[in-house]
Design brief:
Elements: E1 2-9, H1 26-38, E2 44-46, E3 55-64, H2 71-80, E4 86-93, E5 106-114, E6 128-129, H3 136-143, E7 148-151, E8 166-177, E9 180-187, H4 194-206, H5 214-221, E10 236-242, H6 260-264
Parallel strand pairs: 3-10, 5-6
Antiparallel strand pairs: 1-3, 1-4, 2-3, 5-9, 5-10, 7-8, 8-9
C-alpha cells in the first residue's frame, strides 16, 4: 500500500531534507518515526528536497508499506515519534499511480523578509532580515517579467544538476504585511537556489540598488554571475504542491491563482 503524508517543519536545525551519513535531516527523522509505527524499515519519496535552513508549510511525501493502519494511527503514531520541529499534518492512501514528485503540476514557495532596522529575536531563523527600506510594489512590478516559460540560467546555482534551465513560472506576487515583505511564487518546478536567487534580485530592486528592468535583462543574459547575491535560506518555505484533481490531494488556496492552462497541464 502507498500512503501519502503532508508535513510541516522548521528547517533551522536541519542539514536540509535529504538523508546523509552525518548531520540531522528531515528525511532521516521522518523515516525513523514511520519505521517505528510500520514495524519495518520505511523509505519516503518527497515532492522536492529543501536545503539547509529551509522550512516547509506543506511538504508532500509518499511511502510503501504492508502494515495495516488507519489514517489516524499513522498521524498520531508518527507524530508521537517525531521531534518537535517536524509534524505530519494530514495522511491519506494514494490513488492510482500517485507519486509525490512526478505527479506534481506546480510547486508554491513563500519567501518572508523582515524589513525593519533591527533584527528579531522571536523570528530568528524563520525570516530573512533586510534593514534598508523595501518598496514591495516596485519588487512586484519587477517580478512580472519572470512569469511564463523562460530560461532561468541567471537564477540557478552553478552546481545545479537539472538537465534544462527552462521552467514555467505561473505567478510571482510581492506584497507587504506590516514589517514583513512577502514573496509568493509558483512554477511547474524550480532550479537549485532559484527562489533565493530571485529574492536576492528583487531585494536589490526594492531598495533602489537596481532598476525595475533588471529581472528582464538578467533573463536575457542567462548568466548567474551577473545576477547578484543568493538570499538567505532562513526566509524560505515550501508552501504547497498542486496535483491533478483525480488524486484528491489537499489544495492550498494560493493555487486558485494558477492559470487554467497550468491546472490542466499533466507534466
Amino acid at each position: 500500500m502507498r500512503i501519502v503524508l503532508g508535513l510541516e517543519y522548521d528547517g533551522s536545525a536541519f542539514f536540509g531534507w535529504q538523508w546523509q551519513i552525518s548531520g540531522r535531516t528531515v528525511q532521516d527523522e521522518l523515516q525513523k518515526a514511520l519505521s517505528i509505527v510500520a514495524n519495518h524499515p520505511v523509505t519516503v519519496q518527497c515532492t522536492g528536497r529543501t536545503d539547509t535552513g529551509v522550512h516547509a508549510l506543506e511538504q508532500v511525501v509518499h511511502f510503501e508499506t504492508d502494515a495495516i493502519r488507519d489514517d489516524k494511527a499513522w498521524l498520531m503514531g508518527v507524530n508521537a515519534n517525531l521531534p518537535a520541529d517536524i509534524r505530519v499534518i494530514w495522511v491519506k492512501p494514494a490513488v492510482a499511480d500517485f507519486h509525490a514528485r512526478y505527479s506534481a503540476i506546480a510547486r508554491f514557495y513563500r519567501y518572508i523578509i523582515l524589513n525593519r532596522p533591527v533584527n528579531s529575536a522571536l523570528q530568528h531563523g524563520r525570516v530573512t532580515w533586510f534593514h534598508p527600506p523595501l518598496e514591495a510594489e516596485r519588487m512586484h512590478e519587477a517580478a512580472q517579467s519572470l512569469v511564463g516559460e523562460h530560461d532561468f540560467s541567471s537564477f540557478r546555482a552553478q552546481r545545479c544538476q537539472s538537465k534544462s534551465p527552462n521552467r514555467r513560472m505561473h505567478f510571482v506576487e510581492v506584497y507587504r504585511q506590516g514589517e514583513q515583505v512577502i514573496m509568493d511564487i509558483s512554477a511547474n518546478a524550480f532550479l537549485h537556489h532559484m527562489v533565493r536567487n530571485i529574492a536576492g534580485v528583487l531585494m536589490a530592486i526594492g531598495c533602489g540598488e537596481q532598476d525595475i528592468t533588471w529581472t528582464a535583462r538578467l533573463l536575457q543574459l542567462k548568466n548567474r554571475q551577473l545576477a547578484g547575491v543568493t538570499a538567505s535560506p532562513c526566509g524560505l518555505y515550501l508552501g504547497g504542491v498542486y496535483y491533478p484533481e483525480q488524486y484528491g490531494m489537499p489544495k492550498h488556496p494560493v493555487f486558485n491563482k494558477l492559470p487554467a492552462s497550468a491546472q490542466r497541464h499533466q507534466h
